[in-house]
Cell division protein ZapE (Microbacterium kribbense), 339 residues
Amino acid sequence: MSTSIVHLTDRLPVVTGDEMVAALVPPPQFEAATFDSYRPDPEYPSQLSTKETLIAFSSPSGPAPKARLFHRAKKQAELKPGVYLDGGFGVGKTHLLAAVYHATPARRKYFGSFIEYTALVGALGYQKTVELFRGSQLLCIDEFELDDPGDTMVMTRMLGELVSGGTKLAATSNTPPNALGEGRFAAQDFMREIQAMSDRFQTIRIDGTDYRQRAVDGVAPALTADAYERELADAAGAQAVSDDVFGELIAHLARVHPSRYLRLITDVGLIGLRDVTQLDDQSAALRFVAFVDRAYDAQLPIRATGHSLSDVFSAEMLAGGYRKKYLRAVSRLIALTTS
């Protein structure tokens, strides 16, 4: 077997707090994203209007948290310290969020996924994390999700402290902020916290279709064993590729914090998965979603045998509270298996 073949299940990455902070920048796919490179779909005018709103938000004279102290007569939406991009998957929300990051003239600004911020709190502690971000001009939060009440409380409290210090916020999600947590936990028990978080954002709805599926047939191909071996052998000639049994990788993901999944695939040019089976465990499925997100950020092709990855989540899961997460993952899996 080629020495360029690695097994992700052999890797147990360790990431320090400093390394986690250093990684709070747009992923490679969006390191050059700008408003000019965003192409609004003319069929959906909200995409162009959102782009124009965000250009204004990113300018030095854009909305600031302390404005409400001096301009109480302005409309509430204009006084919000943050913008919240709500829309389906594949409409360019992360591209626009990265464009906000790049266009905002700030000395201290950060860009990370929701899970990266909560992982940082876990690694450094709440107070140290607040102190780290205190005084920053901009915090960008991609894929804002509140999957448990603990995250709700932590993020609400932290964002409140940062906003009071002058930090602007920009976030994306597939769920409007006043609906975060629906179908996942007893959201009514945390309505005050969820509402407080919602009040800090001007919600901007982006309509559109998933750009990733405009040029594909909507199915993640499952390769034969021979075709799989050929694909990995060809790729391994130029770069390291991973080769793992799907079930073993899913079990391994439970032993690695999701904030470290990117380290699992460091220096890998292609991901190989053998004997894919449909997932029926919610926790395992959500970990796989987080893994797919990191693979997509790194734009790593995936090759697989067994069950089609576009059908990896059960019908029961797709009907539940995490439906949008699973559909986004399927969209990304189709893109990565056909690239």
